[in-house]
Specification:
binds zinc ion, three-stranded antiparallel beta sheet, Jelly Rolls, about 230 residues, single chain
């Protein structure tokens, strides 16, 4: 299969995801990757099975007062199920999104947030739409037209890019739907879409990008466009 997912989150990140220790924005990208990656679906399953075994093996707190545990149990069993009809209708509306005359399928874990995206901003062949997020993380949908390049840049913080549809490449490789690219301040790259079809990505930034080519005065507005 030519389009197999090859770029995954590290095992440590997957473990932190399963333990609920990632920030909401990073967890969202990992969840969307898992939706697109059978390999990580299996790993998630295995990690969760291990965690369940570890928890089952732990003695319940050796105190005579079990009221906290009882309260937690009560909370679990009394949790109200989500109204199914409402959930189903909002999901069916959000399964795909349209931009540039093209429909893109949205991974299940991203559907709710993608429906809350802000207005698309376009610059040349690139467009971004912010999704709700907490500071300092900025999370956006990133659309790159066919035959279009993002100017060469480095990172003041962490950049996670998940390809949702289409294909991009940079100096380090080629990325298809499901591939997760993690860049840090050590990386400088020039992502580009060399294909004849547009590419849609999910992008999480913990700090602005620094553009490293061309006229700085012209590139300054780019920093705001991407962050
Ligand atoms: Zn994976």
């Amino acid at each position: 299969m030519p389009n197999t997912v090859k770029h995954h989150p590290s095992l440590s990140v997957l473990e932190q995801f399963c333990e609920g220790r990632l920030t909401a924005e990073v967890a969202l990208v990992v969840a969307a990757h898992i939706d697109l990656c059978p390999h990580c679906q299996q790993l998630q399953h295995d990690i969760e099975a291990d965690l369940a075994c570890a928890w089952a093996g732990e003695p319940i707190a050796a105190t005579t007062d079990n009221s906290a545990f009882a309260a937690m149990l009560q909370q679990i069993v009394s949790a109200e199920p989500a109204p199914l009809e409402a959930a189903a209708s909002s999901l069916s509306k959000a399964k795909s999104l349209e931009f540039g005359g093209q429909q893109f399928l949205v991974p299940r874990s991203l559907q709710r947030l993608a429906a809350k995206r802000s207005k698309w901003l376009t610059l040349g062949g690139i467009a971004t739409a912010r999704l709700p997020s907490g500071d300092p993380h900025h999370i956006s949908l990133l659309y790159i037209s066919e035959q279009t390049q993002v100017p060469r840049h480095t990172h003041q913080g962490m950049e996670m890019t998940l390809v949702l549809s289409g294909e991009i490449e940079d100096e380090n490789g080629r990325y298809v739907a499901g591939d997760l690219i993690v860049a840090t301040p050590d990386h400088t790259h020039t992502p580009r879409n060399v294909k004849q079809e547009p590419c849609l990505c999910l992008s999480v930034l913990s700090a602005p990008l620094t553009f490293t080519e061309g006229m700085t005065r012209l590139l300054n507005p780019l920093q705001r466009f991407f962050y």
